[in-house]
Amino acid sequence: MNHDQNFKNLILDYPHQALAFFATEEATDQVSDAEVIPVRQEQLKDRLGDRFRELDIPLMVKWPDGRREALLFVLEEESDPRRFSIHRLVHYCLDLGVLCKTDRVVPVVIFLRGQAPRRELVFGTERRTYLSFNFIVCELDTIAYERFRDSDNIVARLNLPNMRYAPGRKLDAYAQAVSGLANLEDDPKKQLKYIDFIDTYGDLDENERASYKREYPQEAKIMMSFSERFIEQGRQEARREMEGFTERFIEQGRLEGKQEGEAMILMRLLQLKFGSVPEAVHRKIERADPQMLLAWSERVLTAAGIEQVISD
Length: 312
Known about the structure:
The protein is α/β, with parallel strands linked by helices. Among the domains are: 142 residues, no CATH class; 76 residues. The chain is 53% helix and 13% strand. It is built from twelve helices and seven strands. The strands form two sheets. It has a five-stranded mixed β-sheet. The protein has a two-stranded antiparallel sheet with strand order 5-6. Helix 1 packs across helix 2 and helix 8 packs across helix 9. It is elongated and about 105 Å long. The relative contact order is 0.07.
């Protein structure tokens, strides 16, 4: 499963809410009226033959009223803490700082499962520190889901199944995520998109699904409506595609019928005036379009031979 893409979509679809949830200490409520712009991922290379180091989601946050200087947030999702490299993150931030001409960079790492293996990097000796680097850590499975159970932040609500809950509260976390999606998102396309997100990370087995339908009938009904809408959307798309195919088929048939009729007329005229028609001429007539056939038919009256009729 591509967790990076799942979280990239989530953050780019809801950038303000994502920063407020994943980077609370820097974003707080000041981000709500700021402009959030995704940064193109064109980091500098060490050598021209190197591949670009691509970040998950770099976001530039600007306040139009100028009350706060712009911030560059660097968000990275890690589904396996063992793969995390703080040195790579330092490279990311330095490259982006050069690219965007800013030192106001806020690194944020979202750990889906497990804890950060290392939170700080210090370069130096016993005499002096030459570089000190750390980052905002969001360890989803250490956050008690009750904190955000009724949140109006859709990113937090969608991530309830990824948070920490007691064994008996898994279904409640799932149900509150579904309820949050239904209440906080009006766009049907995004509702369909993120019900998959909830379902993926909720990961209910058959018994849990049966219990969910019994214990949370309202939320189960919401899920059913999402599913029905998805099926109906598929039907409508299939219907539109079929209608388009039918129209193209009819038009093609009409053109082919017209071509066939005009070809028969031309063949008859040639036979009446010149007698037998060579096979090569017959094949050329079969391949000609209706406009050409009409022009050739008009030439029959004045042409001295078949070659003058079908000449290009």
